[in-house]
Design a protein that fits this description.
The structure holds three protein chains of three kinds. Chain A has four helices and three strands; from the N terminus they run αββαααβ. Chain A is an alpha+beta fold. Chain A starts with a helix and ends with a strand. Chain A has a domain of 65 residues: 2-Layer Sandwich (Alpha-Beta Plaits). Chain A has a two-stranded antiparallel ribbon. Chain B is of the alpha/beta class. Chain B is 35% helix and 22% strand. In chain B, a hairpin with a 2-residue loop joins strand 7 and strand 8. Chain B starts with 9 loop residues before the first strand and ends with a strand. Chain C folds into two domains: 193 residues, Rossmann fold (3-Layer(aba) Sandwich); 141 residues, Rossmann fold, CATH 3.40.50. Chain C has a seven-stranded mixed sheet with strand order 3-2-4-5-7-6-15, with helices on both faces. A five-stranded mixed sheet of chain C has the order 12-14-13-16-17, sandwiched between helices. In chain C, strand 16, helix 13 and strand 17 form a beta-alpha-beta unit. Chain C starts with a helix and ends in a 21-residue tail after the last helix. Classes of the chains: A alpha+beta, B alpha/beta, C alpha/beta. Chains in contact: A-C, B-C. At the B-C interface, helix 1 and strand 2 of B face helix 1 and helix 11 of C.
Chain lengths: 99, 199, 420
């Protein structure tokens, strides 16, 4: 048996360092996933680093600030805020099919 | 006039006055001076617990112990010494609470006999009176328009409780006040000491 | 007393209220952050501290906040940056802090609260009893109750040292009776700063959020199970709370150790650091109390002994962790215990009473125990009440009669003119 007197002294505050997916892959929570229409998306269309409303407003920080923007579906919870914020309606929410 | 030394083991003191007269400060000075004198191993001073306002009747308390540490946390029921800063606050209930060999110290222009008669005090109770108000007004010890009597009256106390010692009271006063104010206070304490009329 | 001794006294002994004794202790502990909200009878503590800061005597940050809850939250945050943190409060102030108390203990932040005890409303009362103190019982804090102003001053240094010990890391409450100590001046021996610094070195904290090279969060969600991930495993809530409880249980050794070190360095001791005994050597009947109630009891022990009773007093100093083992050892073989409580576990009985009963469970030939309620809301606790309680308890003991109803001493129902 371990020395429990010493063991408990090593369990102090619950301190969290930022790690990806602390609570697992939250992408599995979603019923809808966003699809970007690159024909309409401003940075994709213009090739300029501009707009990025989807990146700015995403509460889960799963949208990249790149041309074109990419969405990490492993952690996207499918809230649809990016769709709401897109000024050119380039984003649509597609239902996730479950087997 | 004999300076009888009181031989109570623990001396309980109540100062009565009105909010703003410095009853609490006076008790603090008594406690500190008593402790400095080396004649008391433990002292306490405390205000009326609760709220105090300028002008309302207030009481402040001190306990001085010669031999033992003071563990008593209960209210003083029968004080050995009652110091009256303002006679309009003095009533039957307070006057009759004094211990049977107690000492009354009163700021008044009346004679000691007046109070003995008014409150029907037995001979065993010593009464010391001086007109500290007049003294303070004459010498300009006035703060916020009111004569300060709380420190000068301590001269009367040291008259009856010689162990307290004027020097110690003066030392504490000096520590607590600015130089000029302390000087005036100390002079008045001495004059209060000299003015005392005893019964 | 010689002249030099008197001179020494003038230098080191100050006539202070309990509140100011606490403030001086905070200053000399070099507290780094203070956040508090005023409440009677505590307010003079933090008023004095802000004076110390203004006068440059204490280099600390005083955080002004809008409530006690915010004060406690600010203290937690400040402590997590590695700073030594203290605050003070009373009654409803502590109750408003309550929500933050288990956060502080669960995050193992060595914060110290000075608690000038006061009754909890309604009805409104600003006067003393121990209701607030016992209300903070089950949130994982160490709790001390002091008996005089010197003990307040001394216990504060010990509290920081205990709370900050790497074997402990548990926040601590130092309590003292509101008004009876908080507003009463008594001589307090102040120690010089050098000696205090030697006794209480700077805090070495287990968290330091001020180090921004390491981005961390404190107190995130912990799941019912432990968390397994690539970076390693993390404890669940259950493991954290196990560790807190074990830290409290084992802190008793540290508390004794720190107390003994203090006693050796400064020449003042408080029993075994957990409780104090008075005239107990030959006693078969023991009075058990804390704070002002115990102090008042000291004034009548001699009188009771003169009446032929073999009676002594045990003053509880450490309320949490409850020093069960030491109390069991002490009370083994005693005949009677009379307990005076200045607080009730409402719906049950006096708190010290049921706590001690539980602690003595299973002792052979257990002592007869009878508890009384005294002094709620600042009702004067007089020596005569203690004497009355002792006689009543001994009478019951003689008859072997165990009563379950609480009995209040010093009630004045007969003076209420609307009662028949």
């Amino acid at each position: 048996m371990t020395d429990s007197k010493k063991d408990y002294q090593k369990i102090l505050a619950s301190v969290q360092k930022p790690v990806k997916g602390e609570a697992g892959k939250t992408g599995t929570w979603s019923n809808f996933k966003p699809i970007i229409d690159l024909e309409k998306c401003i940075p994709a269309k213009s090739g300029k680093a501009t707009c990025f409303n989807c990146w700015l407003y995403c509460p889960e920080a799963v949208v990249t600030r790149t041309i074109p923007p990419k969405i990490d579906l492993d952690y996207c919870k499918g809230c649809g805020i990016c769709m709401e914020e897109c000024p050119v309606n380039a984003i649509t929410m597609e239902e996730v099919k479950t087997e | 006039m004999t300076e009888n030394n009181t031989d109570w083991e623990t001396i309980s003191i109540v100062i009565i006055g009105r909010g703003g007269m410095g009853a609490v400060t006076a008790c603090e000075i008594i406690a500190e001076a008593a402790y400095l004198s080396g004649n008391f191993v433990d002292v306490q001073a405390y205000p009326t617990f609760g709220t105090e306002r300028r002008g309302t009747p207030v009481q402040a308390f001190a306990k001085l112990s010669r031999k033992e540490k003071i563990w008593d946390r209960a209210a003083i029921e029968h004080p050995n010494i009652i110091i009256v800063l303002d006679v309009t606050v003095l009533n039957e209930v307070i006057a009759s609470s004094i211990e049977k060999n107690g000492i009354f110290i009163i700021n008044s222009d009346k004679e000691p006999q007046f109070f003995a008669k008014k409150f029907n005090l037995p001979n065993s109770i010593k009464i010391i009176v001086a007109d500290i108000n007049k003294l303070a007004v004459e010498r300009g010890l006035i703060i916020d328009g009111a004569p300060m009597v709380n420190t000068p009256i301590l001269g009367l106390l040291s008259r009856s409780l010689t162990e307290l010692n004027l020097d110690n009271i003066n030392k504490v006063v000096q520590k607590r006040m600015s130089n000029e104010l302390a000087k005036l206070n100390i002079e008045l304490i001495q004059e209060g000491f000299n003015l005392a009329k005893m019964l | 007393m010689t002249q030099t001794e008197i001179a020494d006294k003038e230098k080191n002994i100050k006539i202070l209220t309990g509140n100011y004794a606490a403030a001086h202790a905070y200053m000399q502990s070099r507290v780094g952050v203070i956040s508090a909200y005023p409440i009677t009878p505590q307010s003079p503590v933090v008023e004095k501290i802000s004076e110390f800061i203004r006068d440059g005597k204490l280099k600390a940050k005083f955080l002004l906040v809008e409530s006690e809850h915010s004060a406690a939250a600010a203290c937690c945050a400040a402590s997590a940056t590695g700073s030594r943190v203290g605050t003070a409060t009373s009654a409803h102030g502590l109750m408003l802090m309550y929500e933050m108390l288990p956060w502080a203990s669960g995050t193992r932040l060595p914060i110290v609260i000075n608690l000038a005890t006061r009754s909890c409303g309604a009805p409104w009362s600003i006067w003393d009893d121990h209701s607030d103190f016992i209300a903070a019982r089950d949130v994982g804090w160490i709790q001390f109750m002091c008996e005089d102003n010197q003990e307040i001053y001394d216990t504060n240094f010990q509290a920081f040292k205990i709370a900050e010990d790497p074997r402990v890391y548990v926040p601590t409450i130092v309590a003292y009776d509101g008004y009876l100590l908080s507003h009463t001046l008594m001589p307090v021996q102040l120690e010089n700063q050098e000696n205090i610094d030697a006794f209480l070195p700077p805090l070495k904290h287990h968290i330091n959020l001020s180090d921004i090279s390491q981005i961390k969060g404190v107190g995130p969600v912990t799941t019912p199970n432990i968390i397994k991930r690539e970076e390693g495993t993390a404890p669940g809530y259950y493991e954290f709370r196990y560790a807190l409880q074990k830290a409290l249980e084992n802190s008793i050794d540290v508390i004794k150790e720190v107390h003994d070190e203090f006693a050796e360095k400064f020449g003042r001791s408080y029993g075994n650091g957990l409780f104090k005994t008075y005239k107990t050597e030959d006693a078969d009947t023991i009075i058990f109390a804390m704070g002002s109630v115990s102090a008042q009891t000291r004034t009548v022990i001699e009188k009771l002994r003169a009446d032929g009773l073999k009676i002594g007093l045990v003053t509880l100093r450490l309320f949490r962790p409850f020093p069960v083992k030491y109390l069991r050892d002490f009370f083994k073989g005693k005949k009677n215990i009379v307990i005076f409580d200045r607080a009730i576990g409402y719906g049950y009985e006096g708190v010290l009473c049921y706590e001690l009963k539980a602690a003595l469970y299973g002792l052979q030939d257990p002592p007869f125990i009878k508890g009384f309620i005294v002094g709620l809301g600042g009702r004067d606790v007089k020596g005569e009440h203690i004497i009355e309680g002792v006689h009543r308890a001994l009478e019951l003991s003689k008859k072997g009669e165990i009563t379950y109803e609480t009995e209040f001493l010093g009630l004045k129902l007969d003076e209420l003119d609307f009662l028949d």
